UniProtKB/TrEMBL annotation:
Gene3D superfamilies, A to Z: N-(1-d-carboxylethyl)-l-norvaline Dehydrogenase, domain 2, NAD(P)-binding Rossmann-like Domain
UniProt cross-references to InterPro entries, sorted A to Z: 6-PGluconate_DH-like_C_sf, 6PGD_dom2, Mannitol_DH, Mannitol_DH/Oxidoreductase, Mannitol_DH_C, Mannitol_DH_N, NAD(P)-bd_dom_sf
PANTHER family cross-referenced by the UniProt entry: MANNITOL DEHYDROGENASE 2-RELATED, MANNITOL DEHYDROGENASE DSF1-RELATED
Domain Mannitol dehydrogenase C-terminal: start-end pairs: 288-475
GO molecular function, one term: oxidoreductase activity, acting on the CH-OH group of donors, NAD or NADP as acceptor
Mannitol dehydrogenase N-terminal domain sequence ranges: 30-278
Pfam families in UniProt: Mannitol_dh (PF01232), Mannitol_dh_C (PF08125)
Record's keyword terms, sorted: Oxidoreductase
Organism (species): Sagittula stellata (strain ATCC 700073 / DSM 11524 / E-37)
Protein's name in the database: Mannitol dehydrogenase-like protein
Amino acid sequence: MATRLCDANLSDLPEAIARPTYDRGAVTPGIVHIGLGNFHRAHQAWYLHRLMQQGEALDWGIIGAGVRAYDEAQRQKMAAQDYLTTLIELDPKGTSAEVVGSMIGYVPIEEGNGPLIAQMADPAIRIVALTVTEGGYYLDPATKKFDPSHPDIQYDVANPNAPRTAFGAMVAALRRRRDAGVPAFTCQSCDNLPGNGEIMHMVIVSLARLMDTDLADWIEANSAFPNSMVDCIVPATGPKELALVQDFGIDDAVPVTHENFRQWVIEDRFCAGRPAWENVGATITDLVHDYEAMKLRILNGGHQVIAAPADILGIETIHATMDHPEIKGLFRKIALEEMAPHIHAVPGMTPEAYVDLIDERFSNPKIADTVRRVAFDGSSRHTGAVLPQIRDAVAKGTPLDGLALSQALWARMCEGTREDGSEIVANDPVWDDLKAVARAAKTDPAAWLGQRHFYGALADDPRFAAAFEKWLRMLWSDGTVATLKDYLN
């Protein structure tokens, strides 16, 4: 029988399972993390747990938080097991498990976010961190600037003491701290966005300025917004993962699986202190932009390059996608010839060596990462990770044929049917709009590039537009594999 995961049962877990060696009762709050999904628990929470295992950072315990009604189910599951998480490392050489205990609470989910605001206003909280996905920052898709017209933002401006968004709650908490004479906290983005700290700064200060100019000035002068780059492939948890944790002898309702690789690169810009993450492998550097460009363009951009043809062909996992010779070839050719030339080396890693590393990571057969998860929200992920590379290629006159093909594949996928005739079900917040345009583009490819909120002036570049049209017409006339072969040859 598996042992139910909770503090009282830690000593009863199977001997091979690593577990907290520190006194969790002595851990006090220092961080609120909004968006407590699998990635955070496999990544940031793990780094903090490793520090605690060394007897450090016991005053930096994590309080989880969410701002949507569906977060309550996750909170209840976590609370029932004292906020412990089993992390299962999926290494091709062998699978292992450990229990992480750096999270010590989870704010109740309530409309108006009163408990969350109160928790963030507590002087003990010195960092408020977020993992809310690339599309969760209320940015205009075309300009990548803060969008004050979004209904959620308008709601928060009208209801500053009972906001709907995480950012509105953070502004409300900072207002309370200012009014009480309490120092500001650091606002730390942990999302896959270029310049994520700068984006967080723009969103928080812009939202505050719509409510209270003096408050915006106070936040500007007193808070901090460090840039960071995060990296670890963390699949969604489903029946397979729930069965796997039982195989380890642990009854955990919310286990997390992850690859045998992590990276966290952080700018050292904090206004109220921080844990010594560098003592457990994080990189503290002023070169965050170089690291993030390499990762966002080759890993995140590479994910979008391979997910669309995989979905069209009915391939379900990323490692199986990399077993497909034409899709693997597509990734490597685009990455080496069209991505790497625009990327700076970082200490210990050239762009070409990074392509090999990502090839190996994508090919890990233990990581049953799904094509559907990777392809989700392509409207945010293509615009964040792929389109900036096309703009660079246009500006510099460098090759872009493969990048144009990646957009034709995305358009073909969004038409909503696979080559075997099966349906590709909705997989984007604006799926209905994408599908309608993709169906029009089947006979008029320019219709897809006419989505100016994504492509902007790229639609007017004759070299990119001609390549896109050629590839999309070929995908519909000759099929995916033949089109990929034509590009590779």
